[in-house]
Amino acid sequence: MKKLHLFVTIGIVMALMLAGCSNSGGNKAATESNSLSTSATASASASEPAKNVTLKIFNIKVEIAEALGKLKQEYESTHPGVTLEIDTQISDQYVTTLKSKFTGGEMPDLFNVGGYREMGVWAEHLEDLSGEPWMADVVDSAKPAATVDGKIYGFPTALEGVGYIYNKDLFAKAGITKVPVTLTELKDAVNKLNAAQITPFIVPYGSWYSPGVFSSDNPMAKQSDPDQFMADLSGGTKKFADNPLFKDFLASVKLELANAYKDPLTVDYNGQVTSFATSQGAITVGCNCTQPLFDQVTPNMNLGMMPMPINDDAVLNDKLFVSVPYYWVISKSSAVKPEAKEFLNWLATDGAKYITDEFKFVPPFKSMKVDPSKLGSLGVDVKQYVDENKVLSGTVAKWPEGVIVDFGSSLQKMASNKIDETQVLAEFQAAWDKLSKK
């Protein structure tokens, strides 16, 4: 297991399953700043004297910043003596800020960590949560990524689905009656959208995050054995340039770029949310986690989640990528660990409505019920894919640290016509070779 001093000197970037996050024009907390900071003082406990405890929470999901404000008010009213101090940071800046907090001796009590590799990096600084009462209710698929040496260190935030988000009304206007599950069908849909004078894609390449995480995971997760393929890449027996799925993937990227709204390099996450929510394009890449931001710009949009086909294998492509994007973890050095554990226990029980109704997350807990009218159309689609077992596990959390940044940068170069597909795969290879050795 890598020690955190290596993490501090080298740095890592958040990986997941599933989510990339920035802010929306409809989210006042997110548009005025990349962080949400709130605090208040609670009254004395009914059962014991007021503790006047402050629980510092560092959150990566800017989409739930507003809902966390509501949660804070309820939690403090039901837990006198406890103050929640919540700080929310955009995902592509989160790790840098977290490293600064760690090196500066200002670690939050509760914060977000990705699974697998990243959990291993942080594990020696985290509280073991294996024996917490809510652990028995966690779905089995959410546990391995948070497990290090037989101990589970994370509270799963959600089951997050990644794929294409599409505007059903614009599809209907263009005469598209079937969700495309092959590249040929996707090309046909693009042609119909163009014929109806509807821009097919909104491509957010203004940051490395979306191409480096959401897009690049597509061909990796579709390998017949992703773990073995990644091991072979690290061992030097496999090459990106020789892999048919990565070549297919770049053909789908070319389709997006050739039919994109504006210059993709000028579209960041904020621009992606705003332009898509105002129907400037019919398809964009992302996760169901963005539902609250779309709702803030244009409520009640008729949206859906669909696969991201890269070739004509309908069975392979008719799937979403579903995994836990991040876990809530507790700092082992926290002076308020009992209060942090109580917060997680409350979130899994009495506060479960925030996960399903306010955050609009597909819950990673067996007993949590979902109200489709509150979950949102994107979450409903993800849950249907999960129920039908039409899912693949995201692989980003298992990649060498830093690779997502290099992958995203290479695709940005492709978008600006600085390199071609062959050079993209060569850069992917160079990045993997370099970073897998660390």
Entry summary:
The protein is of the alpha/beta class. The chain has helices at 4-10, 28-32, 65-78, 91-103, 117-122, 168-173, 183-195, 209-215, 217-221, 226-235, 244-258, 269-277, 291-297, 314-317, 337-348, 352-358, 372-375, 377-387, 403-415, 421-436, and strands at 53-59, 82-88, 110-113, 147-148, 151-152, 155-156, 160-167, 201-202, 283-287, 303-306, 320-323, 327-330, 391-392. Helix 8 (209-215) crosses helix 19, helix 12 crosses helix 13 (291-297) and helix 19 packs antiparallel against helix 20 (421-436).
The shape, in one word, is: globular
Compute the gyration radius: what is it?
21 Å
Distance between the termini: 12 Å
Strand content: 5-15%
Structural class: alpha/beta
Stretches where pLDDT is under 50 for at least 5 consecutive residues are 1-50
Total helices: the number is 20
Quick one: biggest sheet? 6 strands, mixed
Helical fraction equals 40-55%
Residue-averaged pLDDT, rounded? 89
Number of E strands: 13
